[in-house]
Amino acid sequence: MTTIRVQPVNDVKGPVEREDLLLNPPQKLLIAGGVLVAVVLFAYLLATQHISQSMLLGIGLLLGFTLFHARFGFTSAFRRMASVGNGQAMRSHMLMLGIAVTLFAPILAYGATFFGGPVAGYVSPVGVSLIVGAFVFGIGMQLGGGCASGTLYAIGGGRTVMFVTLAFFIVGATVGAYHLPFWTEEMPAFAPISLATSTGLGYGGAWLVSIALFGFIACITLIIEKKKKAPKMATLPTERGWKRIFRGSWPLFAAAIVLAVLNALTLLTRGTPWGITSAFALWGSKIASILGFDVASWGYWQGANASALEASIFTDSTTVLNLGVIIGAFVASAAGGLFKFTRVTVGNFAASVIGGLMMGYGARLAFGCNIGAYFGGIASFSLHGYIWGILALAGTFLALYLRPLFGLTVPKSNDSIC
């Protein structure tokens, strides 16, 4: 197949790392390897864990496959909005959230999983911890080159520097877990506020308010685009017809629909929405324990969390989802002939170290990342999800001034952007 080339654009790490703008012949050996790993892991989970873990691996694979194909970003969406006023990706977020609340409302109201267990959304306190954490995360994701989901699917696609981001994401999440009791117990905060259960609106009323808010935000992005004469997003290469499912880019709206449905399936399978960063805190804490730290005495690992430290990581549903996202993105990238390790510079290495630390620490303080707090929180009708989005956008504005210090690009008004 002839390689398809498109106009270079500015996104995660600048034009030097936009090898993913080529559509090449499928990397069949890599596809086979990714599928084999997925099958072996699925069989292992089926043999040793509850069937829900195998189901979650499948959901994770589909999440990673979808994220990569659409290059569905949260970091880049916030940066496009903040830098040049392009709101196309933000509107896809609103579509995703609209479908998510539509699916979450009856599930939360009914209150049971596929297996009869309880269901609970992500509804967290609103206070200093959330404000500081979300703002710090917003800065970190712009320096680290991706949010929590972006880090995982970029690793699956072979973006080398994102391994650095992930390593320090884990470190930051572990330190954040150690410090979390201070932020939650010593700093002021309001109790968790649900638009459905704390206001008397019920899930039907909360759904109506949510849909109205999403429509309002979408209209605001259109007004900003018109005022700033924002550039359009560049077109990524793709196949035609049914082959587009497996090779090339997906429309953002299609990915938004799929991600919302998969998050609802996650809620129905394990009883809580999709999340990512709690697993990073677990991985880091297990490593810290091996290195001699008395992790079991930390406030974060008391109570319901205590057993996770002693158990296998494969009993942790978030870990299984994360592994699925990485493998799914790897298979998707190989199917498009796009898997390739990329070069690391001093600038993007330093930015990834700082960004990873900030994202890990910020996610613990803010009760989640762009997935757990923003996507999962808003889908669960939690006020903290909206505040997370506002503060992360504020952190993005500051990060626009910091990115050039590390040699990272910032879209300009005359750029085509991706």
From TrEMBL:
Descriptive protein name: Sulphur transport domain-containing protein
Subcellular location: Cell inner membrane
Stretches that traverse the bilayer: 29-47, 53-74, 95-116, 122-140, 161-180, 200-224, 245-265, 320-339, 346-367, 373-402
Organism: Sporosarcina ureae
Alphabetized Pfam families for the sequence: Sulf_transp (PF04143)
Signal peptide coordinates: none
Homology family: Belongs to the TsuA/YedE (TC 9.B.102) family.
Membrane protein topology class: Multi-pass membrane protein
PANTHER family for the chain: INNER MEMBRANE PROTEIN YEDE (PTHR30574), SULPHUR TRANSPORT DOMAIN-CONTAINING PROTEIN (PTHR30574:SF1)
Keywords: Cell inner membrane, Cell membrane, Membrane, Transmembrane, Transmembrane helix, Transport
Coiled-coil residue windows: none
Domain of life of the native organism: Bacteria
